[in-house]
Amino acid sequence: MRALLHGLCEWLNTQVADLDPGSFAMVMATGIISNAILMTGCHGCSDALFGVNVVAYPLLILFTILRIGRFRSNLWADLIDPRLVFSFFTIVAGTDVFGVGVSLRGFVILASALWLCAVVLWILLIYFSFGVFAFVNSSQQADVIHGGWLNAIVGTQSLVILGTTVAPLFESLSSTIFVLLHIFWGIGLGLYGTLIPVLAHRLFFREVDPDDVTPILWVVMGAAAITTNAGSTLVESETDIAFLDAMRPLIDGVSLLMWAWGTWWIPFLLLLGLWKHGIRSRPLVYTPSLWSLVFPLGMYAVASFRVSLVADFTALHGVAEAMAWIAFGAWVATAVGLSVASWRSLLRAIQLSRMKQI
After folding, report:
1. Which of 1, 9, 306, 311 is deepest in the core (most CB within 10 A)?
2. Is residue 226 within 8 Å of residue 157, measured between CB atoms?
3. Cα end-to-end span (Å), the chain
4. 136-182 confidence digits (pLDDT tens)
């Protein structure tokens, strides 16, 4: 029993010390698929996924706090790594996606608090991350293909989606918040226009190694999808501000174009996966980055629902519903992979603890 408890403590310490900066992608994936399935009318399945997030989100927050307190050097090493720093935006996006699920279930005050926390964290991260990108970067670190950079876009646009839900609760400040949300949407669009050419140049004009093709590349599509979703929520919102109302046709058109661009990426990303795992024979194993593949699938489903409603394009509704269940299947497979990987690592920690006591 003593070896068991010691092994469990060592395993938990390791999980906290080595917590992946993008671990909140699990919350993002679970939350967005819960919302997508809710749109199909399957309330029970949606609520079950929301229940998973009710456990996962505070647990990851606790792990992050413990990491700040006990493994600050590990955290700082990730924060100043140009390849990893943008992954911290998954905390922003995870908080917002979870907040949307909370709001849909009537807890709007809690959703408002989550949105405010996400805004503060975004402010802290946005210039810090680009400062790292500019001043700490080296030519070797920059010469990588990393979809995680686009988490900055996902985090920014997630503020728009939850913000449109909670803005009316701020009463006299709601007009100011809606202006801010339009600004966030524009910043996210600008970030996409800035980062996508850099990533595309490395992908199409440099030699690509199988190790460059990771599930995080799917954030390229996910960032386009969440920009579509955010734009559609702005179009649907009643702001009572003439200037913002005049922007609706522009936002509506750009949102449709971003949806089309995200759609274009899906076959190409599948082709990259086929090349890596089929032609180059790299094994498909569980990594935390797989949640960064699941989230874009769910976000694409929700974005397609939004476009079908805003553009009155009913043909897309069937596509959105099918994608929602495809995303759910990917979530189940990834969750099984997480469970198996966690169980195996726990068993190894317990066995190592027993060996040390012999």
Report:
1. 306
2. yes
3. 14
4. 776 555 555 567 888 999 999 999 999 999 998 988 888 899 999 99
Residue tagged 């966690």 (tokens): 342
Ordered domains of the chain (ranges, CATH):
2-357 (1.50.10.150)
pLDDT exceeding 90 applies to what percent of the chain? 59
Q: What is the pLDDT of residues 255-311, one digit of tens each?
A: 999 999 999 999 999 999 999 999 988 988 888 889 999 999 999 999 999 888 876
Q: Distance (Å, rounded) from C-alpha 273 to C-alpha 21?
A: 23
Residue 150 exposure: Cα atoms within 13 Å on the Cβ side: 29
* Side chain identity at residue 176, one-letter code: T
